[in-house]
Amino acid sequence: MKKAMLALTALALLATSAQARTWDEIKKSGTIKIATEGAFPPFNVLEGKKLTGFEVDLAEALAKELGLKVDWTTQPFDNLLIGLNQDRYDFVIASHGITPQRAKAVDFSNPHYCTGGAIVAKPSGPMMAADLAGKSVAVQVGTTYLENVRKVPGVGDIKTFPKDTDAQAALMSGRVDAWVGDKFTGIDLVKAQKGKVKQGALLFKESIAMAVKKGNSSLLKELNSALDKSQNNGTYAKISNGYFGEDIRCRN
Ligand code: ARG
């Protein structure tokens, strides 16, 4: 019994003391390992075997700028930062909003876009935060949408889904009164549903960034400089315009 416990402790120590690959190690290998979810259109989507989306194209452009090939991994959203801390990949790009809680577990790059969480409902449904009182709301689990919907005074039942697209489906099938999700995703949902649903108020704003393992400052520096370059040489604007018809970088 005691032995087994000791072995477990040793494993845990090994797992936490493993080193993330530094920039030099990544550069030498020639390939950077990136993780995303692949179920969050139009940011990261797995279509058959092909990953696409704004963040996928952007990450590919950054890797190209850094002279690296890309090895992609897809993981359920809720597992992404855990896998990062287990050194299963070098960084994560999956629309993570920078929050104080997440910043305790990982290090964030400069933001690669700015957005917010917005309400979508049937045209007769809740459109403002105050309208959510007593209403049921669908959100993806582990997200800032969940965190912020919980803060709405008097909000009714909050239903969580492993995938954001399933939370949207719950709205469309009438299982909930509203869905709260990314404002750009919401715009696409309204278009695709041809007026069956409508976008309401923005509940909160957030800055979205890539995550590296805590302390991996050499990689963070390279990612930030590649992002900077892409924003100065037109690459970023071109990718963003292709998906959104506008440049969604953060501006203050
Ligand atoms: N922006 C939200 C957050 O920070 C949602 C991100 C969801 N991303 C995804 N790939 N499903 O939590």
UniProtKB/TrEMBL annotation:
Parts of the chain that traverse the membrane: none
Domain spans labelled Ionotropic glutamate receptor C-terminal: 31-246
Annotated CDD domains: PBP2_peptides_like
InterPro entries assigned to the protein according to its UniProt record, in alphabetical order: Iontro_rcpt_C, SBP_3_CS, Solute-binding_3/MltF_N
Protein name: ABC transporter substrate-binding protein
Highest taxon in the source lineage: Bacteria
Subcellular location: Cell envelope
Stored Pfam families: SBP_bac_3
Cross-referenced Gene3D superfamilies: Periplasmic binding protein-like II
Family named by the database record: Belongs to the bacterial solute-binding protein 3 family.
Keywords in alphabetical order: Signal
Signal peptide region: 1-20
SMART domains, A to Z: PBPb, PBPe
Gene source species: Deinococcus arenicola
Domain annotation Solute-binding protein family 3/N-terminal: ranges: 31-247
Principal location: other
